[in-house]
């Protein structure tokens, strides 16, 4: 294992990912006129955090690990909480095509929590515990960390409309196991040498912090869902005319959830 990860290329080395995130942010802001403000703030903060992190050269392993936490964990969480896919379904003219993509089996496989966890945490093990660690500062590696983190966060939070909604037990177990694997990886890096220890500690405790935030998200959504079920059960004797029909399509369900 090399004694350092190295220095990032010039800030322009990651410009394709940064440009993509900024374009997504511009589109989001133009469409979010009648959108909950806190979602807009969350998405904006996540996008800017990712762009700043990608544009800042990491000259030490500790700086690189801080970049990893922002690009692969904290940033994706803020982006997902902004619910960009739900917003796109509300305003996009090609929503039927987007619905077909969301219902496709490749998307269903990718957002299956265990699969997303393997792609995310498994990719980190390959990146940091093999000779690939010498390339960890390269744009392709950072792009993978961002994409895998975004996929994992989407699969765990499950705030966007998907083909199959997985239960709390599966998502919770996946989050715990992924967090444990991430923590073990940090410990192995800590044991690799003094030059890795500060970065490994940041990876360990920062990963735990984001993991707790993810756990809070899925628990709060579960609590809200249970509260709605109890409310519906308590109003079973209400007049039929006051009952709100359940959405039958993914598109209708998306609009209903966003209100």
Automatic annotation (TrEMBL):
Protein name as it appears in the record: Cytochrome c oxidase assembly protein
Keywords, alphabetical: Cell membrane, Membrane, Transmembrane, Transmembrane helix
Pfam families the record matches: Caa3_CtaG
Localization of this protein: Cell membrane
InterPro entries, per the entry: Caa3_assmbl_CtaG-rel (IPR019108)
Region (Disordered): 234-259
Ranges annotated as spanning the membrane: 12-29, 41-58, 70-92, 104-128, 140-157, 169-190, 202-223
Topology in the lipid bilayer: Multi-pass membrane protein
Species: Amycolatopsis thermalba
Taxonomic placement: Bacteria, Bacillati, Actinomycetota, Actinomycetes, Pseudonocardiales
